[in-house]
Amino acid sequence: MLDESGERHPHAIPGEWLAQALLVDFVPSGESFRCDEPHVLIPVTALLPIFRNAGVVLDANGFGRDRMLKILHGVARGESIPPIYVEMADEREQEQKYRLRDGFHRYYAALWLGFAKIPVEVLPRL
To answer: What is the CATH number of the domain that holds 104?
Structure first.
């Protein structure tokens, strides 16, 4: 995945992880991953750009390997994956309506795999 400047995205899912989950040539059959919990679907593009703080030490590109592989395997098997948790963004941030509160790995899995929408639960703003 490339960012707006054509550079490799800082939160690209490693190819070996996609291969391990058998998702290298994945094409979504629906608009989002399966989620059996109460949720609403929003466009992936409705979220403010999300970047992990540089100080967060994980396995690769801001991800925990085991956590991401669990999500990727769940998508590959058609298992239910919990929604991400968002809140409404500030009114100044008009282009994207939501800010992520919890679900960094699920968000990037949905984005990387090409889903147009993502299941969310909208929480009150803090």
So the answer is: 3.90.1530.10
Dihedrals φ, ψ of 77, to 5°?
-90, -5
Per-residue pLDDT tens over the stretch 6-33: 445 667 898 999 999 999 999 999 999 9
pLDDT in tens, 81-124: 999 999 988 776 566 789 888 999 999 999 999 999 999 999 98
The residues, any chain, with a CB within 8 Å of residue 126's CB and separated by 6 or more, are 87, 101
Task: Establish if 8 belongs to a structural domain.
Answer: no
Place of tokens 């989950």: 21
pTM for the structure as a whole:
0.85
Question: Cα–Cα distance between 70 and 82 in angstroms, integer?
Answer: 12
Is position 1 within any domain?
no
Asked if residue 10 is part of any domain, the answer here is no
| CA–CA separation, 33 and 115 (whole Å) | 7
